[in-house]
Design brief:
By secondary structure, the protein is an all-alpha fold. The chain has helices spanning about 25-60, 65-70, 75-110, 120, 135-145, 150-175, 180-225.
Length: about 230
């Protein structure tokens, strides 16, 4: 039987000796800003790459020259490096924010989590379990703060899984058959993944706001003293 209190119900007595301090505004702003920036960078780079590759494809068909030599002019490392740096920064900030949010939940002990706190960092990058551990971790934190947005969670995670699947398909396509045609198809898949990422961004920002609001309530309840 779940021990999660419904919304509006006072929380249980906090555990003694635990410090309750919700994640700071700077970290929260970094999580939101980096998510938006990474999504914009992915979509913008995908559109630019697809347009360039389509132009090269037409040029090659018209007898313009060696296709793979032309393609190398599109495969600049700069956009990929920018995306990679944004992604690493987003992973670090989001993981730190989730871990600190979880610490607030643990201090108040309103519910039992399925995963330990360290999975805030490793759930996203560990093979196999990355398909469902981040979802479970975020779901449990939301439950701990009295939120149960099932539709938002399903929307966010379904869109994220589309991103992962399409990205994997695009990488496999380029590795197996690196021709101009396959690169154009991979660029189209990259654009699909970028658009799916934009779809996932909307519910993710709402979920972040709800977690931030919930941890703020928990911390305020702790400062106000235990419920009698």
């Amino acid at each position: 039987m779940s021990t999660t209190p419904p919304l509006g119900v006072p929380l249980a007595r906090p555990l003694p000796g635990h410090t309750v301090r919700p994640p700071g505004r700077v970290l929260l702003a970094a999580v939101v800003s980096l998510a938006v920036l990474w999504t914009a960078a992915r979509v913008g780079a995908a559109v630019a790459r697809l347009v360039s590759l389509r132009a090269i494809e037409r040029w090659v068909v018209d007898g313009g020259g060696e296709p793979m030599v032309a393609v190398t002019t599109v495969d600049s490392w700069v956009p990929a490096a920018v995306e990679a740096c944004l992604l690493v920064a987003l992973w670090a900030c989001t993981s730190a924010w989730l871990a600190r949010s979880r610490r607030v939940c643990d201090a108040m002990a309103p519910t039992t989590h399925a995963l330990s706190r360290r999975w805030a960092w490793w759930a996203w990058v560990t093979p196999v379990v990355c398909w469902w551990f981040p979802f479970r971790y975020v779901r449990d934190v939301l439950r701990a703060v009295g939120e149960r947005p099932r539709r938002l969670l399903a929307w966010w995670w379904a869109a994220w899984l589309v991103v992962v699947v399409v990205d994997t398909a695009g990488l496999w396509l380029v590795d197996e058959q690196p021709t101009v045609e396959s690169l154009v198809l991979a660029a189209r898949l990259d654009l699909v993944a970028g658009l799916a990422l934009a779809v996932a961004l909307v519910p993710w920002l709402v979920l972040v706001r709800r977690v931030a609001s919930g941890t703020g309530r928990l911390a305020a309840a702790r400062l106000a003293g235990p419920v009698r």
